[in-house]
Design goal:
Elements: E1 2-6, E2 9-13, H1 18-29, H2 33-40, H3 64-90, E3 98-102, H4 108-117, E4 120-125, H5 128-141, E5 147-151, E6 164-170, H6 178-188, E7 189-202, H7 211-220, H8 227-236, E8 239-246, H9 248-259, H10 269-277, E9 281-290
Parallel strand pairs: 3-4, 3-6, 4-5, 6-7
Antiparallel strand pairs: 1-2, 7-9, 8-9
Helix pairs in contact: 2-3, 3-4, 7-10, 9-10
The chain binds geranyl diphosphate and magnesium ion.
Magnesium ion binds near residues 34, 35 and 47.
Length: about 290
């Protein structure tokens, strides 16, 4: 807690906002089977959705227990494909490089980047529990000297200026103001470094946030930005887009399968499908160069 002068009185300023405390509470308490059961398969715990064609034959598996297992594995395969898609866009990287994972969750994305490129990684999350979990996973894999997780604010990381060859947000930008976020990425990235974001954004061509987008905001306690806001904020913060990909069509099969996974649903599945189908919401990848 620091303090600030207002007139003659001194008002305490908390180091973390009440909103950020509520977000941390959510993720400290979160234990959705759709995240934990998928992660258990290969100890890669993701907090994002999937991309690519789904093998819907898993739904026809006659043995009920095996059917659940096969659906779980198929959803995990699609989420892993999304993580690889992002990691591929970070490169080329070498083991001498470090990367920064903003909103790292239980840590899966940093491990995927490390396994693919050999790079070191720093992940940050507001959740103490997630950071501890992720560090424990890194210890179990024997990569804790290379991949580290910190309970910190992605807007104010305290990590070294210019220390990173690449950085990303995988579905975590909707918790922060984009100008503040991109200023921190621009500070952390070396000149010529690569920034990648995968996000759900609302579609400016639809108008303002739809009912479905508002329901998603309420579900996760977040504030989904319009697509346009990303490009404005990047332009203001030395990040120049080099690749933009609309992944909306590629993520719909994941949601269609997840909707039928009775053992894993969280209740938000219909809303995502409705938002994508009525054109109010898009799943987007943007890669940018730090100039
Ligand atoms: C999913 O994490 C992502 C978010 C919480 C951010 C919101 C994303 C948008 C694209 C709007 P998760 O894997 O923990 O969610 P779930 O528990 O639903 O699988
Ligand atoms: Mg999930």
């Amino acid at each position: 807690m620091s303090s600030t002068e207002v007139g003659a009185t001194t008002v305490p300023v908390p180091s973390q906002s009440s909103y950020q405390n509520r977000v941390a509470d959510y993720w400290n308490a979160e234990e959705n089977p759709v995240n934990l059961e998928l992660g258990k398969i290969d100890d890669l715990y993701h907090h994002h959705y999937g991309v690519g064609a789904a093998d819907v034959s898993v739904l026809d598996e006659p043995d009920p227990e095996l059917r659940q297992e096969r659906i779980t594995a198929e959803l995990h395969r699609l989420e892993h494909a999304q993580a690889e898609l992002l990691a591929e866009r970070l490169g080329p990287l070498t083991p001498a490089d470090r990367v920064f994972d903003a909103g790292c969750g239980r840590g899966g994305g940093s491990v995927v980047a490390h396994l693919r490129h050999g790079c070191g990684a720093d992940g940050v999350t507001l959740s103490e529990k997630q950071a501890e979990f992720a560090n424990e996973q890194a210890r179990k894999r024997g990569i804790d000297d290379r991949v580290r997780y910190h309970c910190r604010n992605m807007l104010d990381t305290g990590l070294p200026t210019g220390g990173y060859a690449a950085s990303w947000n995988n579905e975590s930008t909707m918790y922060v103001e984009l100008d503040l976020l991109f200023a921190e990425h621009a500070r952390l990235l070396r000149r010529g470094g690569r920034y990648v974001v995968i996000t759900g954004c609302y579609n400016d061509t639809y108008g303002r946030a739809s009912r479905e987008v508002s329901l998603i905001n309420a579900h996760y306690i977040c504030d989904i930005h319009p697509r346009s806001a990303y490009f404005r904020a990047m332009a203001r913060n030395r990040l120049v887009p080099v690749h933009v990909e609309d992944l909306t069509a590629a993520t719909i099969p994941y949601w269609e399968l997840r909707q039928q996974a009775e053992h894993l649903v969280t209740g938000i599945e219909e809303t995502f499908l409705g938002a994508y189908r009525n054109g109010s919401f898009q799943y987007l990848l943007i890669a940018a160069d730090r100039v």
